[in-house]
Amino acid sequence: MDQRDRAPVRCLLMRGGTSRGPFFDARDLPADTASRDAVLLAVMGSPDPLQVDGLGGGHPLTSKVGIVAPGTASGVHVEWTFAQLQPDSDRVDTTSNCGNMLAAVLPFAIETGMVAPTGDTTTARVLTRNTGAVAEITVETPAGPDGQRFVRYDGDTRIDGVPGTAAPVRIGFLDTAGSVAGSLLPTGNVRDTVDVAGVGQIDVTMIDNGQPLVIVDARDLGATGAESLEEIDTDDALKARVEALRIVTGHAMGLGDVTAKSYPKMTLVSAPRNGGAICTRSLIPHRTHRSIGVLAAVTAATAAVLPGSVAYDLAIAPPVTATADGPETTLSVEHPSGEFSVTLGLDPDDPTTVIRSALLRTARLIMAGQAMVPGAADAPTEKASA
Question: What is the pLDDT of residue 385?
C-alpha cells in the first residue's frame, strides 16, 4: 500500500463507560495545538454528519478522543486530555471533561506499557489536564498462564447504556467541585431565577461538581421529564427553549458565550419513576444523552442532596449511612437507559457538603493499530512531550 500521502499514528479504539473513541499516546501527536487538532479531525472524519471518512460514529458520544501521557505532577501516575469533537463541526473542544472516557485511561496506559500492573488489581491516580481534577482508578489485572499480568475486560459488572457485562472499573473522584466553572455554585446561590426571552422566568440550579450543569424542572420547559430520546430530539420547540436557557445561564455561570461550547450540560429533572433518587434527561448540549455522563451524574446527585436546589425539591434521597470513611449516601440517578448509582461522601460537620464521590464503570479495548492521517507531506514532525 502506498502511504506517501498519509501518516500512520498509533492508537487504541476503546469504549469507556457509555462513550467510545480512539486513544493516543500524547508523544505520538504534534505538539502544536492546531496541528494536533487537524490530526484528530482527520482521524474522526469531522466535519461530516456521518463521519463516514473516519473513526467517528456520527454521534457526540462516539466522537470523543483520549490523549494520554505519563504523569509529571507529584503523586500522579497518568495525565490525560479529553477532546470532544462533533460530527458536523471542525472544532476540537478540550475545555470540558468526560468521566466515561476516563474509565478507559488506565486500561490504555497499561496496554501501552505506560503503567505496569502491580497485582491482581492495579490502582493509579489520573490527572485530567482539561480541568485539573484527579481521580483514583482501579482495574483488574490478573496474571495469565505465562505469569504476565493483563487488563481484564470480561466480568459481571453491568452498566445501563452498554450491552452485556464487563469487568469493573472503580473510579473515585478526589476533588471535582468547580472543575470548569470555578466553584460548586458559580453564582453563589443554590437556586437562581433567570429571565429567558420568549420563555419567561425559570428557576434553575447552576452547579459544577465535575461537570457544569444547569438543573431545571422539566415541567418549567413544557416537558414531563419522562420523554424518550426521540421525543426530545425531534421537539424543536423544546430544544429551542433549552438552548435559550443555556445561553443565558452560560453567562450567569461566568462561562461567557457558550453558543459553540459543549457545556453547560442541560439537565431536565423530575421526580423518580423507577425507585431511584431523581429522574434526568441530559442534553449534551444539542442532542439527548442516551444515559447520562459520569460527571454529570455526580453533579446531578450532588444537587439532589443540596437543600434548596431544584433537584432537591424533586428527589427522594436515600438515608445517609456511617462508614469507616465518614458519612455517605448512594443515589440512583435515573436516565433514559436505566440508572446510574453514585456514592457521595459527605462532610461529617456539614452533611450538605460533598467531599468525595465514587462509582463503577466498565471499559473495553475494541481495536489496536494505526490511524492513517491524510496529508502526510504536510504533517508536522515535532511531537508532543510527555
Answer: 45
